[in-house]
Specification:
The protein has helices at 19-31, 37-42, 49-59, 64-71, 79-85, 97-109, 116-129, 134-142, 147-160, 166-169, 178-191, 194-206, 209-220; strands at 6-8, 14-16. It is mostly helical. Helix 8 (134-142) runs antiparallel to helix 9 and helix 11 (178-191) packs antiparallel against helix 12 (194-206). The termini are far apart.
């Protein structure tokens, strides 16, 4: 209590000040209880439940309960898979459950029956996961037949802030879909390098009308330098 880890309520009950501390400590106890993860995930919601499962997953190389939890999810919002996706950045890169979850997310990302907002959230999961395969994934998705996939791939490239992806983004500036062109422009702007800024200025001065519009809208989103 003196250290601030626990606090005392007015009724005399003691609780953790931060649910992440509670979840972190709870995960060590849960890890010696066999495979409690799935049972815990089905239990009534409690404040530190998500944190406990997150740290338990980070400690687990083999975790069938994670894949079972992900497989039990369903349309339209996929809450379990969204939750598991946030655990990926803490998981060991060689954990056995991680690639299976990533493959399921990649499959749903390319499902044309799902709304854009859900697929965008799946792309956000990929971005924050920091997986080493992301660059190869984006290269593949940039050539997809779906304009939504191309748009999300461009957003992913920009989020990586990897200047090596700039050549891959160039074809998207002539895409037939205006949303894809704008996403490509935003991705190049996110690189924020001398080469990317030079490219935007060349587009603004010499490009076709649709490219000039993309460059202008992109620069306008970067005050004050973009305005200048």
């Amino acid at each position: 209590i003196e250290g601030g880890v626990l606090i005392e309520n007015l009724d005399g009950k003691i609780k953790f000040f931060n649910p992440f501390v509670c979840g972190y400590l709870s995960s060590f106890h849960a890890s010696i209880e066999g495979t409690p993860g799935f049972e815990m995930s089905e239990a009534q919601f409690w404040q530190a439940r998500g944190a406990t499962l997150r740290f338990l997953a980070a400690q687990s190389n083999q975790a069938p309960w994670i894949e079972e939890l992900a497989a039990s999810d369903a349309n339209p919002l996929y809450p379990n898979l969204m939750m598991i996706g946030r655990w990926l950045r803490d998981a060991h890169p060689k954990s056995e459950w991680r690639p299976n979850v990533l493959r399921r997310i990649a499959s749903l990302l390319q499902d044309n029956t799902l709304p854009f907002a859900i697929r965008a959230r799946f792309m956000a999961i990929f971005i924050v996961s920091g997986d080493p395969s992301l660059q190869a994934l984006y290269k593949q998705l940039i050539g997809a037949s779906s304009s939504i996939i191309r748009q999300l791939a461009a957003i992913g490239c920009g989020a990586m802030r990897n200047e090596k992806m700039m050549d891959d983004l160039l074809p998207l500036f002539n895409d037939e879909d205006s949303s894809v062109r704008l996403a490509a422009g935003m991705a190049v702007a996110a690189l924020d390098s001398s080469n990317s800024n030079k490219m935007l200025l060349e587009m603004l001065e010499q490009g076709e009308e649709n490219l000039r519009l993309v460059a202008a809208e992109t620069l306008a989103s970067q005050p004050p330098e973009g305005y200048k």
